[in-house]
Specification:
It is built from eight helices and nine strands. With about 250 residues, it is α/β, with parallel strands linked by helices.
């Protein structure tokens, strides 16, 4: 949230590593959950039905953070827009779009850090990608409609996720794909309990079914592990519930 954790240098470092880190940088051990690496890329490669997209397809990455999924969407779409509330994240993503790389450092232990370079994968046309700061719950006018909308690790960090979801029928074109991935970590720090989509009367997926129908139908479901490194000996290992919904 603006002014909170996601504007800190710690968050920027962790998310650049999360999105662009080499396997040996993220997990410098010969053991551990290596299947949880490259999560931002896997949200696209495993959940988007690329064979259903036309050559002129448009994509929107809501809560794009530092932009890896947005770049991955550009592999399949003529235009990919990434939107995030964090000024720091969008500044970093914009630099990556312009230059293709960004120097940073990530934590090893305490104040000790390791220099690294975040790089957009070769083969991605960066001219297809743009980034802008914005609130996913109050999107600006004029965005148009999209063939893919991705919301990865976003809904459980919004003050009012249901209000964000209300915009989706107008954002997703007929036949388009909506991808929602979330570990469903509902915390009052980010979302008032009255606004939680799960963890009380029912689980998150059940609420998504209620809120998204009849405009969308569930088309696929996956369990996607992901790994966020805090330092060399401390990690967050989580499992996102990922779903694909088709716009009717």
């Amino acid at each position: 949230m603006a002014g909170g954790f996601y504007e800190t240098a710690k968050a920027l470092s962790e998310y650049l590593l999360f999105h662009y880190g080499k396997p040996e940088e993220v997990l410098p051990w010969d053991f551990g959950p290596s299947d949880a690496l490259d999560y931002p890329a896997r949200c696209v490669s495993e959940c988007v039905a690329a064979d259903r997209l036309a050559a002129n397809a448009r994509a929107l990455d809501l809560g794009c953070a530092v932009g890896r999924s947005t770049f991955e969407l550009a592999r399949h779409c003529a235009e990919a827009i990434g939107i995030d509330l964090s000024e720091n994240f969008i500044a970093a993503a914009g630099q990556l779009q312009r230059a293709g790389q960004l120097d940073y450092s990530f934590a090893v232990e305490g104040d000790l850090g390791q220099a690294a370079v975040a790089e957009v994968p070769s083969g991605i046309d960066r001219s297809r990608v743009s980034f802008e700061q914005g609130d996913a719950t109050f999107l600006r006018d004029g965005l148009g409609q999209f063939d893919v909308v991705l919301m990865a690790n976003l809904i459980d960090r919004l003050p009012c996720p249901a209000k964000c979801l209300e915009q989706l029928p107008n954002l997703v074109a007929a036949g388009g794909q909506l991808i929602i991935a979330s570990p469903c970590t509902w915390l009052e720090e980010y979302t008032p309990k009255a606004e939680w989509l799960g963890g009380q009367a029912q689980q998150t997926l059940d609420t998504l079914r209620d809120l998204l129908s009849p405009a969308f139908t569930l088309d696929g479901e996956w369990n996607l592990p992901f790994l966020i490194r805090e330092h060399a000996r401390k990690y967050q290992w989580s499992i996102a519930q990922a779903t694909r919904w088709l716009r009717q």
